[in-house]
Predict the structure of MFS transporter.
Amino acid sequence: MFAGKKGSVFTLVGLYILTIPFFNALNVTAYDNSQILGHFGESTTIFTYSSYIPVFVMLAFMPLGMRIAKQMKVRTMILSACFLAILFNTASLYATNIYWFTFWRSLLAVISIIGIFASMIPILMKYNPAFNMPIMYGIIQFILQGSSHIYKYLGAQFTSVYDWTFSIYFLNINFLIGIILAWIFYRKDVAPMKGKFQFDWRGWIILIFFFTIILFICAEGQSRNWLSDSKITIAFASLLLLIGVYLFHVRFTKEPIIDPDVFKYKNVVMGTFLFFYIGLMNGTGSIVTGYMSGVLGFDGVYQARTHLAILIGLFIAIPLSTYLLYKKIYLATIWIAGFACYGIYHILLYFRFYPGIAPADFLLPFVFKGLAIGFLYPISALYIAEGVPAKLGDSRMMSGIIARVIIATLLGGALLGTFISNTKAQHKTGLSQQLSVVNQQAAKKLSNTKNYYLHQGSSQIEAQKMAERSLSNQTSKASILLAYKDIYLVMSALCILPIIILLLFRLGRRPIGRVELEPIPV
């Protein structure tokens, strides 16, 4: 089926490179949001939906995508996926409105999921079980995590040279390279993992409704002030109802998408919580992005270039953690190292929330963030798959993804935005109360600003209003920095908590066990 001798490094590298465009189908335009929003001229709420929908479509299609990838002939599937990805990607360039743009991007997300699983099958078949699972997944995470930041940077760089459409063309070139690689590395067109096609269509429809409601909550929750709005309350109640409907559905289904029996394995329960916890810690990255753009005024290129520092940590931690897992090091050792790096990352940024910070000041915190990702991501995916039988593989995969991506990252990120707004309002109220004639520093600042506008030819009333507005803007900036500091201080404490639990209760003092399932590649 594959070109080259068994164990060929050249073939291995080629097969892994083939996965990269599918992993980064949505990453390459990560810093182009402002240009895309300006191009279509839609409201912020509509654009929020446009950003969320392709991600939710991708996640919802994962169970079916994996089944399809195992049924079809690999060479045909990868060539078709690359061709369709180019077609859908190009179609998004000619979208006349945001709705068609979202539609084509969603189809691209669907194709990328099929491409991911299809390109992973040859690696699993050729190097597993001969290839040790920690080593194989360490390489996957090394490529996945590293390429995501590189693609985001390249997309931002191309956007600055021309505009956001250049990133789309760049991605098309990647898929063309994928077509060439498929012709080189696949000699036979076979479906090595094909079996009797069975799929839980009814459970999948329930899952789609579940994701749709969470999509609505993520997009509308903050603007509707969450549970104070009746529609958000109904949405949360509907989620509980859907969970009940799904549990009832499972009793009459042989192979459900998420089988509750998977939670009989302790490592799946703990692994799902671990996925949620890691997603929660990593989700604070949106604060830094907002800080760079909203407070410091960094453009997309500066943000993407600064985030490249994460690669340094990834290039150190992922090979190291892979080696340690291969050498049967204790799980607790890697967990403690990862949580400690996340804690250092948050505490370092806590002291960097001040005006005038330079891009170089983010280097050290982002290196520690890369170290944390490199230590925690491979072990969490391997741990949740440990000892789980093949028939529960999809259940284990979806429980981890829902915990980390849906609940922690997407829904947690929406809740975090509200928390930031509320904390900012409290700090601004406290700071505004100090702006009185008693506060000599504030009074002097107001007087100097007023005199400046008077010298510019403004009237007394206009100068007074503009001076008060200027002081209010400075108060607002100070309050958002204080809100950021509060969140990162709390997160640094939450990162230390698992370390204390691991040491206090002597948990994880064993190496990783047998992993027969493919780890979660997304």
